[in-house]
Amino acid sequence: MSGVSVAKGTEDAVPASGDLVVLNNVNKHFGALHVLQDIDLTIARGEVVVVIGPSGSGKSTLCRTINRLETIDSGAISIDGKPLPQEGRELARLRADVGMVFQSFNLFAHKTVLENVMLGQVKVRKADKQTAEQKARALLDRVGVGTQADKYPAQLSGGQQQRVAIARALAMDPKVMLFDEPTSALDPEMINEVLEVMQQLARDGMTMVVVTHEMGFARSAANRVVFMADGKIVEEATPDQFFSNPRSDRAKDFLSKILHH
Ligand SMILES: Nc1ncnc2c1ncn2[C@@H]1O[C@H](COP(=O)(O)OP(=O)(O)OP(=O)(O)O)[C@@H](O)[C@H]1O
Ligand SMILES: [Mg+2]
Q1: Which portions of the chain are predicted below pLDDT 50?
Q2: Which UniProt keywords apply (predicted)?
Q3: What CATH number is given to the structural domain containing 215?
Q4: Distances (CA, A) of 156 to 55, 137, 152, 190
Q5: Of 198, 208, 140, 196, which is closest to residue 168 (Cα–Cα)?
Q6: Separation of 23 CA from ligand 1 center, angstroms?
Q7: Percent of the chain residues past pLDDT 90, beyond the cut
Q8: Of 1, 105, 148, 197, which residue has the fewest beta carbons closer than 10 angstroms?
């Protein structure tokens, strides 16, 4: 593991306990498209990083490389000091260490909410059913949907389903949670209930990478904002610095568009 490091400018907020996710000169192409260009990004344990940027800038691809849903062409990614495994059981374990919450909730439709949150614990973490159920119920309570445990996903609102998806990821005791636009498929009145769960997670010290256009969340929960455009990290700053004084023209242009509608 690498030495002690904290996010720039956030010494008070981040416990100084080392780097958890390190991307080193990462490059990826989709055919002729250079979708990730020389990406260097280090995320400290307990840090909350919000990734923003225009559509097509590579935010989702970046998230997907961190749990190896996408391969990379060059560079290196490590989690907790270990390089990403290529395949097999090691890869399954890594995926469990890296919780992922997508825009679409991806719950199993034919399993109950409770079963959805138990499944990975039993299959990947080899927990016994009783332990898995106890933990699932506690997590469902924690995200505010404990009373929905025996329903099927389709019987829940979008906001409730997304909170189940968060509970399901948390059930694996992930080292880091990746959120890719977790609220952008939700009706407006359900966005806050999901953001509040994420705020609480951040306060509890979870390491989080969050792709979102929710600038209120970025301002209140992020230790750092990473701004991407055209496959590159163009700017990194604290939310205060970024929103009040963006340095690049790309960021200024992007902010003027999203903050004025
Ligand atoms: N599997 C794929 N095959 C080919 N091109 C892809 C693939 N996935 C993404 N791309 C392209 O890579 C670029 C970056 O896509 P990505 O989804 O990472 O962007 P994004 O920043 O998440 O955008 P959005 O804000 O719209 O979600 C886009 O031009 C996209 O069309
Ligand atoms: Mg995306």
Answers
A1: 1-16
A2: Amino-acid transport, ATP-binding, Cell membrane, Hydrolase, Membrane, Nucleotide-binding, Transport
A3: 3.40.50.300
A4: 29, 16, 7, 12
A5: 140
A6: 19
A7: 80
A8: 1
Mind listing the pLDDT tens digit for each residue in 114-145? Answer: 999 999 999 988 999 999 999 999 999 999 99
Let me know if residue 154 belongs to a domain: no
Domain that holds residue 182: 19-106+176-257
The predicted structure's pLDDT at residue 3: 38
Please tell me the predicted confidence (pLDDT) of residue 260. 66
Non-local (6+) Cβ contacts of 218 within 8 A are: 50, 52, 210, 212, 225, 239, 243
Which ligand 1 atom is nearest residue 53's CA? 21
Q: Ligand 2 mean position to 59 CA, how many Å? A: 5
Q: Whose CA is nearest to atom 1 of ligand 1?
A: 30
Q: Which two tokens stand for residue 85?
A: 């495994």
So what's the pLDDT on residue 5? 40
Count of structural domains, the chain: 1
Ligand of minimum distance to the alpha carbon of 39: 1
Q: Is the CB of 229 under 6 A from ligand 1?
A: no
119 occurs within a structural domain: no
Q: Is residue 166 part of a domain?
A: no
258 lines ligand 1 (CB under 6 A): no
Q: How far apart are CA 207 and CA 144, in angstroms?
A: 21
With respect to residue 142, please indicate whether it lies within any of the assigned structural domains. no
**CB-ligand 1 contact for 33 (6 Å cutoff):** yes
